[in-house]
Each structure stands twice: as C-alpha cells, then as structure tokens.
Amino acid sequence: MLVYPHINPVALQLGPLAIHWYGLMYMAGFLTFLWLGRKRIVTLNYTQITNKTLDDLLFYGVLGVILGGRLGEVLFYNPSYYFANPLKILAVWEGGMSFHGGFLGVLVAMAVFAYQQKLRWLELMDFIAPLVPPGLAFGRLGNFINGELWGRPTDAPWGMIFPHVDNLPRHPSQLYEFALEGVLLFTLLWLYAKQPRPVGAVSGLFLIGYGSFRFLGEFARNPDDGIFGLMSLGISMGQWLSLPMVLTGIAMMVWSYRRPVA
Predict the structure, then answer these.
(1) Which end of the chain has fewer CB atoms within 10 angstroms, the N or the C?
(2) What is the total count of domains within the chain?
(3) pTM for this structure?
(4) Rounded to an integer, what distance in angstroms lies between the CA atom of residue 30 and that of residue 32?
(5) Which UniProt keywords apply (predicted)?
C-alpha cells in the first residue's frame, strides 16, 4: 500500500506572504491556456481572435472560474458550513472550488465577452474548449497536494493511506481525475479540434467527455462532505451535475452536424 506523502500546502513563505501550491496550480493552468490558445490561433488561422483578444479573454475567464467555482462549492456542496463561517468563503487558497460552478461562471463571462467583442458565443466556446482540460489537470494536482477530495476505501494494490483522514487504503481519486479530466480529455479535444468542425461540435464533445469522465471518476471518489453525500440512486452530487452535461453535449453534436451549413 502507498502512503500519502504529506506535502506542505505552502510552496513559499515570504514573511507574512504565503504562496500556496493550490494557487500556483491555477496560475499554471492559466498560463497553459494562453500558450495553447496562441497555438490554436495559428493552427486554424483565426482572424476574429488575436493574441490581445486572448489575453482579455483569459481575464474574463479567470473571473468566471473563481467566482463561479467558489459559489458553486458554497451552494452545491457545503452551504451549511460556509453560511456558518462566511469568511471562509473568501479562503480560496485552502481549496474548495466546484468545477460545475466554475463552468457556469465561465459560460456567463464568455457571454459578456462575446457581446462586447461582437463575437459568436458558441464559436468562442468551441475555441476555448480544448484549452480547458490542462487547467483541470493542474487543479486536480492541487487537490492532491492539499490532501483533499480523497477516494473511497479500496483493496487495490495502489490504494493510498491518507493519514490525516484514517488508516484505510483509499483510491487516489485526485490522480484518477487528473488522468481522465485532464490528460485524456485534452488529448481527445485537441486532436478532434485540429480540423475545422461544425459550430458547436467541439463544445459538445467537451460536455460529453468531461461529464462522462467525471461521472466515472466519482465512483472512486469519497462523497463530498456537507449536507450531500450519496444521493438518490446511490450517485453523488458531482454525478447528478454531470449527467445534464452529457445529455446537452450529445444534443449539441447532433444539432451541429445536422444544421445546414451557412
């Protein structure tokens, strides 16, 4: 059995200033977004999106991720704790960001950005979809470093004991999600999006891919704390939130390939 290698969540302490690994993982995700975005602009010869537009796009995206992700964590997963400790809502460096909340936040932020820049919202979402999974991968590494979102007990030889939780071998579910939602989803989307696709198809594949991988990964992940554990039909809040993503993604891909070409 493996033992979780306790990692100090603070990467660097400069007097009263603490730089957390969790924050550095988000920074790595944002920088990767810019790097891949510039490559995508050149590969598909985008004319409406420039490097300057991409920088502004990231700013809006960061706001959507942070505000939506934190509010999603508060409202979807642990409202009783955060309403009893409202100042903890601001402590994002301690972890606790809901993907589904961040996703909704990004949708709103991109709608505002597309309106201001006179861009088609769905085409914009198709552009950014392949740039998102590396950020998800870094986020899951941040979860692992923080020792949070551990897995369910297991007899598998790679089971990992998290001493700050208990002495039971558990799935290192953060690493499973790193591989599925980060590496595998990025590979699928990047290869699929290398060629021009009908409007909405890339976004649809993202919804199907993320929703499916998250649904599978949740079987190994310990149910989240708070008022929600396993819900009806024995599946988790994360799985219930992922199901509409898969169904919407399927509908989008069918629509995108059947609609007349303008």
Answers:
(1) C
(2) 1
(3) 0.88
(4) 5
(5) Cell inner membrane, Cell membrane, Lipoprotein, Membrane, Transferase, Transmembrane, Transmembrane helix
